[in-house]
Structures are given as C-alpha cells and as structure tokens.
Write a structure and sequence with these properties.
This protein is an alpha+beta fold. Helix content is about 60%, strand content about 10%. About 35% of the residues are buried.
Length: about 250
Amino acid sequence: MTQADTTPRRRPTWAIALACIVLGLALGWGWQQWRSSVDPAAGLSGTDRAAIEKVVHDYLIANPEVLPKAMEALQKKENASALSGIRGDVEKAWPGQVLGNPNGKVTLVEFTDFGCTYCRQSVADVEELVRSNPDLKVVIRQLPILSPESADAAKMGMAAAEQGKYAAFHHAMFAAGKPDARTIQAAAQAAGLDMARAQKVLADPRVEAELARNIELARQLGFNGTPSWVVGNALLSGAVGRERLEAAIKDAS
C-alpha cells in the first residue's frame, strides 16, 4: 500500500479497446446475419471484413457517445463483480464507527488514514454530504498505511467508537494534524474519552484483526491509497470532491 492517490479511478485503456471489439463484433455479427440471409453459403471474406471495418469506423465517428456509455456500463459491471460476496463485509461498520445517520438507507464507505492529507481535505466534503443527505450513513474503515502513528490513531478512533464518541474524535484528530503521541492524546481528550476504557479496547486483539481485514478488503477492491470510497456499485479513489461523491450517492439511491 502506498500514499494516497489523488487521481480519480480511471477506466483502463484496455476497456476502450474491449468496448471497440465488442461493438465491432456486434456489428460484424449483424452484417454476417444479413449476408447469410442473402446468401447462406457466404463466408467472411477479406472484402466482407473490410466492409465491416468501414461500418464500425463510420458508426463510431457518427456516434462517439457509444464508447463512453459502453465503458461506463463495463466499469459498473466490473465494480459489481468486485463487490460480489464482500459487500456485506465492506458496509458493516466497526461498532459505532459511523458518521451521519446510522440507520441511513444509503451507505457511503470511506477507507481513511488519519495521517493522510487528502483524507483531511475530504473531511469538509463528507460533512457537507451528511448535512445535505439526512438518509446517508457513512461507514469509516480505518486503513492506516502511512505510518505506525497512523495505526495508533486508527486504534484510538476505534476505542472512541466503542464509547459512542467516534465523530468527535474523528474531527478532533484530523484537526490536530499529523498523528503522534501528543496529537492522539489531545484528540482523545477533546472527544472526552474515558482513557481507562480506551486502553482496554486498544489491547483487544479484535482491533488488530479489524485493521488487517480492512487492508484485505481494500486489496480485493483494488484500492491502493486513501481516501477510497464505495457507494452502490461505484468505487472511487482519491480526494474526488463533494460533487463526484454526491453524484455517486444519487446513483445509488
């Protein structure tokens, strides 16, 4: 895992080629069906192939909007496949580690790291989304990949969640700056944590298991940085901005 990638998830170039091939095959099949209806013995000769290529070329030039639509459909299908079998795990929050409406009908999952600058930049976007979408549930999955201190902050966040004070710690920790012993302690105090209770959670082996599970889920979804997002069948990477997240939420509603 590497430092956060701010580039939004892009459709790979092979998807463009695949879309062209699929479209070409479809048009070619239609052409061949027509040829066969005229002459059942007709085969796909060099002349036929050239004619098909011209049909495909002319169609794409006349209808360039077909490729983006095909790529979008392909991306959604790939995302649904990636989420198949693990969506429940992805959307299931560590107890209390939720922002917004805990019973919301639409779930936005954020893989985050308290040491990530781009995650910090996204805090305001998430706050605005929560304010404008009363039915939005934001599940936070800790993905502390930048430093040991990031992991320490993540664990304290999970301890805060156990006390019903995750949101307070979340905002205090990101406001405090780079995680270290001092800023983590300050954020815990600002959130009003019972430190004796927190220490018990920090020592619980379930905490390490949860962090390991988050890393594995991120791997299965193809995420290699933070922040990364899941909503509906949309998989987004980087500080994509409120408008992009809002559109994905609307699409998932």
